[in-house]
Amino acid sequence: MLPQVANHIFHHTTRAVAAAPAVRNVLGTSAPSPSWAGASSSYGAGAGAGGHAGAGGSKYHAGSRFYSGYTGPGRAVTQANTSTANGTEFDDEEMRPSLPSTRHKFRTRSQSFSLGSGAHGKKARAQSLGVLKAVQAHYRSRHAFAGPIRPLLPSSEEIERPATPRLVRRNSTASTVSVPPSPGLPPEVQSRAPSPLSLADPAAPQTVFPPIVRAAIDRLRAEDTKSVVSEWNLAIKALWDTRVPKDPVSEIVSVYHDMLARNLRPDMTTYACLLDVLLQRSFAVNVSVRNIHESIERRSLIKDRVAQSGQRDYMDHQTLAALQGETNYESALTIFRTVDRVSGWAFEPSLYTSLFQACAEQRDIEAALQVFAHMEHRHMQPQPADYAWLIRAYTDVGDFEGARVVFEEMERVRSAAPASSWSRESPRHVMHAWNEMIRAHILASNAPAGLALLERMMDSPRGVSFGRQDIPSPSAMTYDYIIDAFCGSGDYRTAVAWYSRLQKEGEPVASRHQPVPLLPKPRVASAEKIIIGLGKQGRVDEINEFGKHVNHTWFSAIALYLANIRHLLSLPSGANVVERLDALHAELNPVKMFPAALDFSSPADAFAPAIALYARSGQHERATDLLTGLLDYQYETRRLVQPRHEFWPTAMPAVSAVLFDSNGGWMEPPFLVFVALLRTRPARALGLPDDVMNMMVHAFDRELTNGTDLDFLGMDDWQALAHAVWSTRAKGERATRTIAAVLKGMAQGGPEPSSQALPLVQLLADLQGVAGTSELLRSLGPAYEALLFSPSGTATPELSTSDSILSTQECPSTADTSVSSATAAIDSRLSTMVSQLIRQSGGSSRKALDDAWRIFLSHTRKGVYPEPATMGLLIQNLGRAHRLDQMYEAYDAAQVALGTIDNSARRLRAWGTIEENMIVGLAHAGDGQRADVHRRRMLEHGLTPNADAYAALIQAVRDTTDDTTVAMTYFDEATARGVHPNLFLFNTAISKLAKARKAELALQLFNQMQALNIRRTPVTYGAVIGACCRVGDIATAETLFEEMLATQNRKKLRVPPFNTMMQFFVQTKPNRERVMQYYTTLLREGIMPAAHTYKLVLDAYGSIEPVDFASMERTFQTLCDDPNVAVEGVHWASLINAYGCVGKDLDKAVATFESITAHPTTPKTGAPASAVIYEALINVFVTHRRVDLIQPYLKQLHASGVHMTAYIANLLIRGHASTGDIAAARAVFEAMHDPPAGVAASNNHAPHDSLSAVANVSPDAPVYREPSTWEAMVRAELGQGNRDEALTLLERLAARHYPESIYKRIGGIMLDDSVSPWPAASTVIEPIT
Predict the structure, then answer these.
(1) Preceding omega of 643 cis (within 30 degrees of 0)
(2) How far is CA 1281 from CA 366, 1220, 1222, 1277, in A?
């Protein structure tokens, strides 16, 4: 289409305005508003008056109007995807009628169930009903102008939804759930039961509802609760009101299924509610899908690889898969067709409009025609919005003739039907129907016909005050439709002409949906489409010309910028690239676009090409200016939300642009580039990456060779250089010169050396000897000369590492070493250096700890020591790193340093500091017994460990028969001795109580934290939630979980509390729906699933009836695709257990086991190297009574180097007993060993950790009995009628001194006369710990 057509229309606009006094009056005076503008009234109730029958027959129902118009090629694509045709968009708001009051004009079914006369039944019903009503009233009260109680709409910030009644929502556990025929329905409906309602993908996000709502609905679901339909309707509405707007509605659909299971017949309120819920969720999903596709497309503007990699894109594709797996639309059609089969049943007009919208979004013409036929049979008048959506549907499937027929039918009906048959919103929706027809003509390459409609709208006799049967006047949205349609047809030249003219001559408008008398300003979203479209076609000159007339948003600006950058990258060298780039930056300031680049995952990706263009053209200063500004901005905006270790990997594309050419070769940039990098905020805070520091040292050495004056460097620059030189550990003469130059530069900056000077001095001494280094330092001043400290003495002392440190009889002020305190000295500068290195990267940097240890060791061997506090810090971190030999060497050195302290009181305090750090270090190294030695030593000398030491001791308690008693003894001792508990101490104590199922005590400590004003963290909440779940107190656990979400920083939430809640509903009270609720919440909070999370989801699908193997397999594939989580043995065990034990498919379970070695995620280590996998397979054999198949796999387990666990032995005992071979069961039991008294069995849990990481336990090592082993053997004996042998086993068990609770549990088996070798039915492989 030529732009001249647009010019003709603009001239027509001028003529129309000039010729219409009424329009001029509107411009000059305040005209009265049309009666329909902004109205929010009802369409009317029930069947619309004035219905009529169209001509012609129909394939579906007699009288359907538009079947004859649907004969084109569009039929083949009626079930096409939901994406908008030709890349265009539509504004949902324009097609939505305002929400009428949800007062149905039909009588609901009379209550057929009484509550019963019992007081309990009345009370339960009253509580449920009262709570649900209160919830609805509470959510209603949030609205200032609340009308009659009705379902509430979600926040406009969350989802833009059609204005129709809000209804039900519920979390799904299975991908499909069958809906039985509703009792009491007419025979024609009973004979054709509705299709199963296909729910949302259970792996998709689900809402965790408030406990009060959950409790009320649980009471309603209770078997002893009598209920009526109206109560279930109220429950549905309460769930809708309290759901998270962007979550699926499967929980609501499940409530509907529960109602059907009680033989309660849904009434029209139920169906209307459920239909609205499904439709609104469908609309929300479509909006989210479009937004995600748009986000992915925007990121793809930078580089193709950006859209295909990275955590952000991975999460986007995961979300897309979950959203597209929902089947809300199909379920809504099932509801509609159920109602359609009942004569006389009808919805309110607003729901029909929503149905038409859903059909349009799905491009489902046939379903839309069924809705029209349904309305005809009930003599209901379709509204203009309904016609508009049908025009959209025909257009999007390419059936433009069908769209024309619909439009002409609407105009015929509008002219013939009385005005009373139309809603008050009709004029506005008529305007939108005309907009849709204009769009259809343009997309059909028939722009003149579309623009002819625009002329008629501009010539509307009544102008902006048009009525229900008048030709509508255009709105600003009309012009938006025109521009977007030209973009959708690929005619960007005409789109640019329209946009530019509107931008030049248009007037701002208050609403784009209200009719306007003059040309409006265009919306920027249209400019973004034009820029993206032209950019994809490489029409850069047109983009730049067009950009001059655009009031840019951040996205339109960066889209224009990136289009130009791609063009410049394609130009040959010497094509005035720098001049063009300068001109582009003058027009579009890159600094102002940094915020926009954050939407592309990392600004570095967006601006690296421009930096590279400057650098490769020799314009290093321009490149550096852009780079440093970018780094500072990215660091400041991301430092609070991005882990420190992730900064440089995301920023390296931009840094590499100044260092390497297009082929990856080093460009040897000037040293000034590195100086600029050193001065950036991230470099000051985090240091530079090692590779960059190596290049910087090389560039510095080049400057030295060239004799460059380096006076411009400041003290901070020299310190950073010192750290870089130290990190590179260069050798040879050149390294000696470089180190000397850095030391001289630092000395010029001030007489006092910084902490960075000390390691350089040591390195220089190692390279050229003490004499040469001493001469250099002497020239730099006394302070530098003192760095090379050499105490008097003739020999380097050898530190003792004797076992005397474990003696509790030692005096705290002395140590058994060969070092004399008289020859030792404490150096504060050494303390500063060692402390800085240890604290670098939060103590987690192995390299920093190595550096600290080397410096410490080299000085202590010369008799120079850090201060005791620094030595304590070093000891603790060596212990955390499991470097126990070095820790003990540092401990011995500390005893020498303590001897230099003359004041006995100070010496005792310093000694206590060393002992405390030994406790913490040993405890974190897993050696709780040796840590306790140092605790006793402190107590013997009148000192008390601090809170961190006690917390570490509690954390280290393990492998005893009663860990909790030992742990709480430490806690009680700490409080009794006046130690003020801190967060670490409380968290470890609560965690130990949780594992022991002592929830009451855990809650006491939890509440005590609040009394002491100690901030509770997600770790604290996770521990106490775990305690409640272990004792089955799910109500308290849910309350605490909601409190955690409401009070804690969302960015600090972690996986464990979510896993705990999920595990409860997998193992303790199986409920797949509830599992998926918490899985959903985890994803919604942006928390990456952990390996255990995936295991729980696999178990939820594969172990909870009805099983859903398809969803389980999709989850496993998601796990395999997740770059952040490795596939472990527990995941394969879940699959094997599901197929073999739950699905009863032995062959499938064995085939799954055999497939592990060849799976792409399995390390190439031969047979599966995880005991839990063998345990799962053996459990399948035992379940199928195929003990004869076990032996070959036991041999394979041993041959693969896997140590057998007690849990495998338990299964063998049960298997042999089930076949009557009690002798074989006894042989397995007696071949096992008992751990030392009071010590828990070892080597039974480590192999469960990973598929590829096998514990360092020999397959020939003893297998120690667990309490569950004793239980299995007792059951085996009793199952064979051998009560005397069982009593003998209990006597042996008593001699083991297990906690009383364990003995009572196992002994209680004797009270059951019908004992079998099988415990309570369970498909869970792992013991609950």
Answers:
(1) no
(2) 69, 11, 11, 6
Residues 6+ apart with CB under 8 A from 770: 788, 790
DSSP assignment of 728-776: HT--HHHHHHHHHHHHHHHHHH-SSPPTTHHHHHHHHHHHHHHHHHHHH
How far is it, in rounded angstroms, from Cα 593 to Cα 557?
A: 7
- Output the six-digit token pair for 553: 């948003």
Given a contact cutoff of 8 angstroms between Cβ atoms, the answer to whether 409 and 68 are in contact is no
Phi and psi angles of residue 1233, each rounded to the nearest 5 degrees, phi first: -120, 160
Q: What is the pLDDT of residue 1326?
A: 39
Residue 1065's Cβ-count burial label (10 Å; 0-12, 13-18, 19+) is buried
Task: Report how far residue 433's alpha carbon sits from residue 95's, in angstroms, rounded to the nearest whole number.
Answer: 8
Q: How far apart are CA 627 and CA 623, in angstroms?
A: 6
The average pLDDT across 906-926 equals 92
Q: What is the pLDDT of residues 573-614, one digit of tens each?
A: 666 888 888 888 887 777 777 766 655 556 677 788 888 888
The Cα 399–Cα 388 span in angstroms is 15
CA distance linking residue 70 with residue 369, whole number of Å: 10
**Predicted TM-score (pTM) of this structure:** 0.59
As a whole number of angstroms, the distance between CA 362 and CA 808 comes to 79
> Hey, what amino acid is at 1263?
V
For residue 1239, give the DSSP letter: B
Res 392 pLDDT > 90: yes
Task: Please name the residues in contact with 155: beta carbons below 8 A apart, sequence gap of 6 or more.
Answer: 245
Q: How many CB atoms lie within 10 A of CB 576?
A: 11
- Per-residue pLDDT averaged across 1224-1249, rounded? 72
pLDDT in tens, 89-101: 334 434 433 333 3
Written as one string, the DSSP assignment of 388-453 is HHHHHHHHHTT-HHHHHHHHHHHHHHHHHS-GGGS-TTHHHHHHHHHHHHHHHHHHTT-HHHHHHH
Is residue 1278 within 8 Å of 1305, Cβ to Cβ? no
How much is the mean pLDDT over the chain?
A: 75
Q: How confident is the model at residue 400 (pLDDT cuts 50, 70, 90)?
A: very high
- Provide the pairing of β-strand 825-826 with 197-198: unpaired
* 3-7, 1132-1136, 1240-1244: least confidently modelled range: 3-7
Burial letters for 896-929: b for 16+ Cβ neighbours within 10 Å, e otherwise?
bbbbbbeeeeebbebbbbbbbbbbbbbbbbebbe
Cα separation, 315 vs 643, in Å, equals: 18
Strand residue runs (E) in 577-698: none
Cβ atoms of residues 95 and 389 within 8 Å? yes
Closest CA to 1209 of 1269, 1276, 1130, 1270: 1269
Q: Which residue has the tokens 């006076």?
A: 711
Q: Which of 44, 273, 321 is nearest to 151 (CA)?
A: 273
Closest to 171 (Cα-Cα) out of 205, 195, 221: 205
Question: What number of residues does the chain have?
Answer: 1329
On whether the CB atoms of residues 862 and 765 are closer than 8 A, the answer is no
Residues 725 and 739: beta-carbon distance below 8 Å? yes
Distance CA 605, CA 788 (A): 47
Residue 991 pLDDT greater than 80, yes or no: yes
- Position 838, amino acid: I
Q: What is the pLDDT of residues 1002-1024, one digit of tens each?
A: 888 998 888 888 888 889 999 99
DSSP 1117-1167: HHHHH-TTS---HHHHHHHHHIIIIIS--HHHHHHHHHTTTTSTTS-SSSS
Q: Is 384 helix (H, G, I), strand (E, B) or coil?
A: helix
The secondary structure element, H or E, covering residue 825 is: strand 825-826
